[in-house]
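May I ask you for just one protein sequence along with its backbone structure tokens in two labelled lines?

_____
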Amino acid sequence: MPPTNIAEVPTPVPAGKATLGLIESWDLDEYTSQVGPWEVRLDKMSSGAFHSRMRFLKIPGITLYDECWEHHVVVRGSPPEGLVMLATSINPQSSDVHWCGQALGEQVFACADGRSDIDFIMPSRAHDAVLLMEPELFEQALGASARESVNAVKHAVFDKDAGAALANTMTALLNRYHSNPALADEVNQANEIKSQLLLALDNCFSSNQPIDLSRDLRADALQRALQHIETSRGKTTAWDLARHSGVSQRTLEHFFKQEFALTPGRYLAKSRLNRCYHDLYHANPDEDTVTRIATDWGFSHLGRFSGAYRKQFGELPSQTFGKARAGTRRAQLAPMQAQRRCEFRHSGSLMSPYHGEAL
């Protein structure tokens, strides 16, 4: 039975109340499957077992959540379609979250319309907050021009004080309700949450409309290099990456170190390991083997491959493949980690991540 994602958590039946919950995962692909309505792929670029934590708060028409990332992660894919999205980095001075080539912060928020591919980078120990809202509610509160402007850009640049107030409102609401879950069951909480968020949004949009920030030379060169890694299935060289990126090898190495704290060669090696991880995780046991998957991604020395894989993901490739082969990955994880990983609290009861069944 597939896990419920945050977009499918049922809206509270009692009017005026809120739903809150926690998703905490130690599994890269398991986490990806639970963060709908996003359609994304996560590549872990730092060593060690994966760990991420998401808190969310949901009322009719609005979902608010924040994420804490223990590891350096590169994310590519599609944002939620049919929803207005605004997101920012919390404590941007300590770590830069990059969205489509720009660092997020007190003034710069990420936007998305769900119709174009996006990429973003979460450094180790990054903390971000995301607001998803139904477009009808957003337009009713802020006007058609605000909705159109958000849909047309990937970065919203607000007044510094207004942007900081919106970010603070988002995190304050999550802190308030997660520190006191019973508060979500009180009547009229949904209206209070909505009022605070819409007031903060109105202050942002009344000061100025969002503008898009053009991607600079570094962002464009990196995008071309990363695209070549995808199309070549990792079977390329640093020289080829520079050629496809349109800059010199030395310049590209400087860009990679700025963006990922890795050389192009190290990034390429980690990217190939991530591709192996995803293929092993979703392997067909009747057709696939660890050796074939490793060879497909350019690893010819299986001993060195196994050592690098274990360092990157905290388990051997045979263990990842073995779980897929047995068909027990979720069955093994759910009983041990369901309460730690996915707690959906509603009306004082603890809900299972599997279609709202009570634990």
